Amino acid sequence: MSLPKHIAIIMDGNGRWAKKRGLPRTAGHKVGAETLKKILTHARKKGIEVVTLYAFSSENWKRPQEEVQTLMNLFRTYLKEAREFVEKEIRVSFIGEREKFDADLKEQMNRLESQTADFKGFHVVLALSYGARNDIVNAARQLATKAASGQIKPDEIDEATFAAHLSTAHMPVPDFVIRTSGEERLSNFLLWESAYAELYFTPVLWPDFDEEAFDKALKVYQNRDRRYGGLSNKQKV
Ligand code: IPE
Ligand code: IPE
Ligand code: MG
Questions:
Q1: Ligand 2 in contact with 54 (CB < 6 A)?
Q2: 6-236, what's its fold?
Q3: Which of 27, 55, 102, 143 is deepest in the core (most CB within 10 A)?
Q4: Helices and strands per DSSP (H, E), number in the chain
């Protein structure tokens, strides 16, 4: 099978990676941020068009304040290097509850999005304070508002209209969802969009996830048979 156009990654296992080494959890997040850069460069080289990364869930605010603070500072450092995305002509967008972040972070996110909006070859989507249920509820609320004001008729609401009101409306749905660290769940990530995505779980912890691990995952994807409820060519014989 061909390459996935859009890969979505649940970057999990930073805390356990650090704990195994007797380090504070935050040390794992720091190494994890380096892994992210490496994997993005590699994914682009491989010809992947869109990569979405689950970096912070809407539930991760529940973590100890110190850990949340370290993560915020890491995003801050990451966004300060935004020039690199512009130089490499990478389109960057953000999904999630942007209003929850400090003003400087919000401003950096908005700026990077608009500076890179027209780049076509490679698209990186960062899910920050993202929760799929919240995104679905937001879409429902927007549609209800439009229906109440007569802008849309309830009968006109179909899957395409609904999807157009999600924060992911501007990208293709993911073909392949990778989760590292051995956990086998979606943890509120792209619930609508992943309806027919191929799922891949690896025990490798995110800071250890490298080019080789990525290629191994790609190979698994290429051997999958995507049927979408129908029959594959092999089955039709
Ligand atoms: C993923 O690693 C990063 C975030 C959720 C921000 P974790 O911090 O969840 O690491 P584990 O799962 O505790 O090992
Ligand atoms: C999901 O990981 C969120 C990210 C990787 C950013 P979590 O570590 O928060 O998920 P649970 O708590 O194990 O489900
Ligand atoms: Mg985790």
A1: yes
A2: Undecaprenyl pyrophosphate synthetase (3.40.1180)
A3: 55
A4: 9, 6
Please name which of 3, 50, 91 lies closest in space to residue 173, comparing C-alpha atoms: 50
The closest alpha carbon to 138, from 177, 175, 98, belongs to 98
d(CA 53, ligand 2 centre) in Å: 12
Beta bridge partners of 90: 122
Any atom of ligand 2 within 6 Å of the Cβ of 10: yes
Which residue, among 185, 168, 184, 64, has the nearest Cα to 126 in the 3D structure? 168
Q: What is the CA(109)–ligand 3 centre distance, in A?
A: 24
Q: What mean pLDDT is predicted for residues 188-208?
A: 98
Q: For ligand 1, is residue 12 a contact (CB within 6 Å)?
A: yes
Name the residue of 10, 12, 133 to mutate for ligand 2: max ligand atoms within 8 A of Cβ: 12
Tens of pLDDT, residues 119-173: 999 999 999 999 999 999 999 999 999 999 999 999 999 999 999 999 999 999 9
